[in-house]
């Protein structure tokens, strides 16, 4: 499985960005896929949202509820993260993560087997 994120950048507070994760070798109908982020100076990656193998959103972090939405285009093997009403505290490196052999989601980083290289999102005030 190879995951490649794109779509990050610099945006003003209140703006929007759409991140993409191209997932080669990943079977959307079998396994779960998620978005995480790691803010500057933080050691732990924060789980943002996750799609289970049925394409259902089963996890959304409280910090992004109502603002961020995960979705997928299975035909293009791509998962997206639509981010609206961005805040400076959303500044982080955003990662796509996939698990092998499980259809369930988790907000725990150690649950996932594959990670992308990350894409930087910077929100200015």
What does the average pLDDT come to?
A: 94
Structural class of the helix and strand makeup? Answer: mainly beta
Spatial separation of the terminal alpha carbons: 37 Å
**What oligomeric state do these chains adopt?**
single chain
Record field, number of beta strands: 11
Globally, the shape reads globular
Q: Strand-and-helix sequence, N→C?
A: EEEEEEEEEEE
What is the helix tally?
0
Q: Sheet bearing the most strands, described? A: 7 strands, mixed
- Percentage of residues in helical conformation: under 10%
Radius of gyration: 13 Å
Percent of sequence in beta strands: over 45%
Low-confidence stretches: none
Set down the secondary structure blueprint.
Blueprint: E1 2-6, E2 9-12, E3 17-24, E4 33-38, E5 46-51, E6 57-60, E7 68-73, E8 78-83, E9 92-98, E10 114-115, E11 119-124
Parallel strand pairs: 2-11
Antiparallel strand pairs: 1-3, 3-8, 4-5, 4-9, 5-6, 7-8, 9-10, 9-11
Structure commentary:
This protein is mostly beta strands and 125 residues long. 0% of the residues lie in helices and 48% in strands. The chain has no helices and eleven strands. The chain has strands at 2-6, 9-12, 17-24, 33-38, 46-51, 57-60, 68-73, 78-83, 92-98, 114-115, 119-124. Strands 2, 4, 5, 6, 9, 10 and 11 form a seven-stranded mixed sheet that branches. A four-stranded antiparallel sheet has the order 1-3-8-7, with no helix packed on it. Strand 4 and strand 5 (46-51) form a beta hairpin. The model has no long low-confidence stretch (mean pLDDT 94).
